[in-house]
Amino acid sequence: MSVKSAFPECNFKCDFEVPSFSKTNELVPTIDPTYQLDSDTTISLLAGFRFNRRVLLQGMHGTGKSTHIEQVAARLNW
Hints:
Blueprint: H1 3-6, H2 39-50, H3 65-75
């Protein structure tokens, strides 16, 4: 799936393919349409997925690190 098509709200300047599933199931998190994805964090996560590299998200507790990953997974039907 193209990152530009999966995450149109992020307005990425680059585009590449990331692995995704075509169908959802009961294990896939639900998409929260009100969640505001951070573009820099999202592109870092997606590049890590695409190129099989580790990505470290850091920040204070309660700032949305886990939720951000969950929402990326929801949009890719993981």
